[in-house]
Amino acid sequence: MTNSNATQTLTQPSPEGNRLGELWSILPEHSSVDEQGVLHIGGVSVEHLAEQYGTPLYVYDEAGLRGQIRRFMSGMAERWPNSEVLWASKSFPAAGMYRLAAEEGVSVDVAGGGELRMALAAGVPPERLHMHGNAKTDAELSMALDAGIDVIIVDNEDELDRLERLLTRPQKLMLRVIPGVEAKTHASQATGGDDSKFGLPMDQAVKAIERMRAHPLMEFEGVHIHIGSQILEVEQFAEAVANLRSTGDFATYDVGGGVGVKYTYSDDAPSVDEYLDAVVGAARTYLPADAKLMIEPGRSIVARAGVTLYKVVTVKHTGKTFVAVDGGLADQMDAALVGQRFEALVANRATEPWTETVQLVGRQCESGDLLVDQAPLPAARVGDLVVTATTGAYAYTLANNYNGALKPAIVFVADGEARLVARRETYDDLLATHAPSIG
Ligand SMILES: Cc1ncc(COP(=O)(O)O)c(C=O)c1O
User: Fold this and answer.
1) What is the pLDDT of residues 262-304, one digit of tens each?
2) I need a labelling partner for 113 at 20 to 30 A (CA). Which of 25, 123, 138, 404 fits?
3) Crossing angle of the two packed helices 272-286 and 62-79, in degrees rounded to 10
4) Rounded to an integer, what distance in angstroms lies between the CA atom of residue 329 and that of residue 323?
5) What is the DSSP letter of 51?
6) Ligand 1, closest atom to CA 393?
7) Closest ligand 1 atom, CA of 189?
């Protein structure tokens, strides 16, 4: 499947009556629209993708994913050579993405045994893995130790008790501390304030650090913070780095992830360079010059590269116009969970004027299953293809089986070719973990 007739790139001005030109900055980098007004991603038309793989479908611009990883890695290496970029894999825990991360040579952070298992199965070398979690179990810590992962980021004293029992050889450890930064984001995405469940406050951190330093098998490397997610003001990261220094002089400082992305026409999100300038600028001011500096971007690596492709099932006019698609909060939780706004387009008629403002809804049994409130669209018809943009992060992560929904397939597209990275769940999958007597 090639992109021979995809002539209009989204950098061109909007056609009359719609804002396609503005979608450029929230659709995947390698997007275009052909003469018939059909959206192509990675050189493959959404019509072809829907026909071949069905809907709803998670579609990723593979070159966009690789490009963003490279931007972070080269930008960081140029600014602070003694550094490491870790992709926070909770943002898109699919085996194909772990494989891509391994190919790109970016390190990976996992939170829990499932992510660790996937990363190892996909070929991420153990020496590029870090493990997080505020409630790691004995089993998970044993998995990490057996695999020989590089660093375990300790969250609390109980975890140190566990490690004391489990360690049989030296292991690098870091400690998650509470930086006392109230991130400007949704409350459930803020993790750096004084009442956070993650990490230890400074007075307790000092004790935990002493304990690690005194233990013959614990190699204490330094401190870690993560102030939250979808943070649009880079000054907040600089503030966090400044607070880090007050924790003491260490070999390594990890400033976590959290840089926000542009979801809507009006969002003003920092570029990778702006983010790195802020973090490294603060590191130059506050951290020891010979320290190792780590960052853990998740969302900002995968969000823009991904879209979700749906088919319109019904259009209803009841005072409001409801356009209902064949997915919903089972494949896109963030609208309901944190009120995230997304933008949508009718992807098989992308150049048509937007004449309506509709409620783009899903098929799950919740009124809160509203994918886009007041979405400006052309008059939608049954069978139209709808794309919600910038859904590459945390959508697959949070996908669930509400109303028996089947988790969508994932395809990677690049250079006019699509490849299946995860197949769609089947009804048999829904029964697979249940007792045979009800199967
Ligand atoms: C410890 C840690 N690091 C990194 C991240 C990635 O955050 P983001 O996806 O916002 O970049 C998270 C997200 O929750 C996290 O908990």
Assistant:
1) 999 889 999 999 999 999 999 999 999 999 999 999 999 999 9
2) 404
3) 20
4) 15
5) H
6) 9
7) 14
Q: Which positions are annotated as active-site residues?
A: 365
> Are residues 427 and 374 located together in one domain of the fold?
yes
Q: 328 C-alpha to center of ligand 1: Å?
A: 24
Does some domain include residue 438? no
Q: Does residue 279 contact residue 238 with C-beta atoms inside 8 Å?
A: yes
| pTM (predicted TM-score) | 0.95
Check if 334 has its Cβ closer than 6 Å to any atom of ligand 1: no
Angstrom distance (rounded) from CA 332 to CA 362 = 9
Over residues 402-412, the pLDDT tens digits come to: 999 999 999 99
Phi, psi torsion values for 65, nearest 5 degrees:
-60, -50
Using the CB atoms, write b or e for 115-125: b if 16+ within 10 Å: bbebbbebebe
Quote the pLDDT of residue 15. Answer: 62
Indicate whether 145 belongs to any domain.
yes
Find out whether the beta carbon of 84 lies less than 6 Å from any atom of ligand 1.
Answer: no
Distances (CA, A) of 363 to 165, 317, 330, 380, 401: 49, 16, 9, 16, 12
Q: Do the domain assignments include residue 439?
A: no
CATH number of the structural domain spanning residue 154: 3.20.20.10
1 in a structural domain: no
Which among 42, 46, 44, 103 is positioned nearest to 70, based on CA atoms?
Answer: 103
Give the ligand 1 atom nearest the CA of 231: 10
Query: Would you say the CB of residue 258 lies under 6 angstroms from ligand 1?
Result: yes
Q: How confident is the model at residue 14 (pLDDT cuts 50, 70, 90)?
A: low
Q: Give the helix, strand, coil percentages of the chain, each rounded to 5.
A: 30, 25, 45
Same-domain check for residues 250 and 238: yes
Give Cβ neighbours of residue 206 (< 8 Å, ≥ 6 apart).
none
Q: Residue 149: which domain range?
A: 63-302
For helices 235-245 and 272-286, the axis angle rounded to 10 degrees is 20
